[in-house]
Design a protein that fits this description.
Blueprint lengths: L4 H12 L8 H12 L3 H24 L5 H23 L7 H29 L4 H26 L4 H19 L17 H32 L3 H16 L7 H6 L5 E4 L19 H10 L8 H16 L3 E4 L10 H17 L8 E4 L3 H4 L7 E4 L9 H5 L2 H22 L1 H7 L5 H27 L6 H19 L3 H27 L4 H9 L1 H29 L2 H10 L9 H36 L12
Antiparallel strand pairs: 1-2, 3-4
Helix pairs in contact: 1-5, 1-6, 1-7, 2-3, 3-5, 3-21, 3-22, 4-5, 4-7, 5-6, 6-8, 6-9, 6-18, 6-20, 8-9, 8-18, 11-12, 16-19, 16-20, 16-22, 16-24, 18-20, 19-20, 19-24, 20-21, 22-23, 22-24
Length: about 625
Amino acid sequence: MLSNRWAGLVGAMLVEACTGLSYTFAIYSEHLKQTLHYSQEDVDGLGAAKDFGGTVGLVAGLLYNFYPPWVTMVVGAVGHLTGYGVLWLTVTDRIRPTYGALCMFVTLAVGGGSWADTACVVTSMRNFPMFRGTVMGLLKSQVGLSGAVFTVLYKAFISPDTSGFLLLVAVLPASAMLLLAHTIRHFPTKRRHDDDEPPEAMLRFRFAYGLIVGLAVYLLGLFVLQSVFSLGRVGFIVGAIGMLVVLSLLAFLPVSNKLLRGKGKARWVQLEEMPANTRPGHHLWPGGGQAEADQRGERRQGGGVEGGSAGIEEDERKYDEAKSSGMYRTSETLELLPFPPESQAQMQGKRQSQNEREETPHAILRLQWSPSRETATSSSSPKRTVVSPCPVHSLTLLQSSLTLNFWLLFFTLGSGAGTGIAIINNYAQMGKALRVNRVEQFVGLISIWSCFGRLGAGYASDLFTRRGVPRPLLLAMASSLMIVTLFFLASGALLTGSILVGLSFGAYWSLVPAVASDLFGLEHFGAVYKAVASALPFGALILSAKITGSLYDQEVVHYCKSLGGDVGIAKCMEEHTCYGHACFAKALVILGGVCIASISAAALLTWRTQKFYRMKNSVVQNDDDEDEGGID
């Protein structure tokens, strides 16, 4: 029972909860700066090297199809342990690598997590091809929460030993990757148990979403209590135990469907998730009319509808009652009425003609109902065949990189999320410039709200896409929210800024992989996804190290000179610290301009793909009125 794709999803979620530790950089960046006597530009250079670790995952994506996913997990664990281990040895003065060598090991540390992320994301996307946005929301929300989870562990058991925190993030995630590697594997999706059909699958997804949202709210409450009452170590120990208990509830996901709906008998499902020809009051038999409805009533002997006009009236009454709540109480099984052979042939012909008109291969969900009339009279449900939404011809990395859509997506991520990572990497220094202590609190809040951003964007993107709304439109909305974040940070509102940067930055990591799989397919998704994700380290290098860091260093010089006196200037330069709103003012203005460029790129990508998403939705919904083409 536990050896199924749901158990694999649980394993992937737990591993992903250990792969977002690059976002905890603010916890130990100031410690690195003081211990190793680095300038702010040097520290931001280490931050950029950390972000370049994501490009290491490109190799994992290219090689993903050549060996089982567990191999990728093991390689990731070794890289993670080695990189963070060297960083811990450095800050504890056990070794003294050069600055360049330290940057290389920081890249290796985060690269190990990127390898594990590749295995989790690609495997889960292939195991759940019908729920891409939802699955990405679950996985990436765990990445977002990882910073808060490890911050709580740090405050409970290690604080204020920052060096000990580096040892924790070196050992614990690597151990989790090795222990859970066997759960990250492919499961067949062509034949599915009834529990894996869309209505039942959504019950499981809602259970998982509820757990993650509950964990995020729990952690949020913990940090709010810390800010109001200043919890001591005992308070955080109690909080950490509760957090681990909530995380352990994920183990019930593989069996949660039976727990939620029970065995057999009637159950409640969402009306919109029921196949059209099983909804009460929806007589969608091709050709329509009373005669066909009467024939349906005769065929469904013993199925809950007695037939004729009385059966139709009963159906309509049930439908009217269900419309207000969106839920319908079904029998033990959903009996599917197959389309007549001639109608099935017409539908397949329409789909074939639509595929021939596509200018770029893409992913479309195809639902086919068994054409056998004999099944309709059976007491059991007819067989339902689900064809995977993989495109007929997925694009390779080279083919994808030759399209304008690839580079628009690349630029949107690099500029939008790059702005977010520039803010996150410098949050400790922003807090110090405004004389705000306890930067760990902001790291935790950023992680928690990043989780909400990932969950919300993943779920909303699937919801909007089913209605024909282009998924890239949500990328433009995320970049717009990032601009609002910059306004709050410029005014010194660090608390509000941490919430908004978490929401907007997290949204990218649910949206970008889903958009990439939509436009370029799943066959080579590992390589394409990591190639697009490599935009972030380039954005971080330019926006964080070369712009934000260098401008901060210039402001330090101006601030120290304003103090007057040789002794005061010398001491100020030695501490290399700037105080006041002006320290990051210029950088925030430049980042705002970059976000405007990100919005423009996302808007252009939305315009270029709107026909594609409308057509995709029309095929899923069997919309006979829609005849638009593919991607321009």
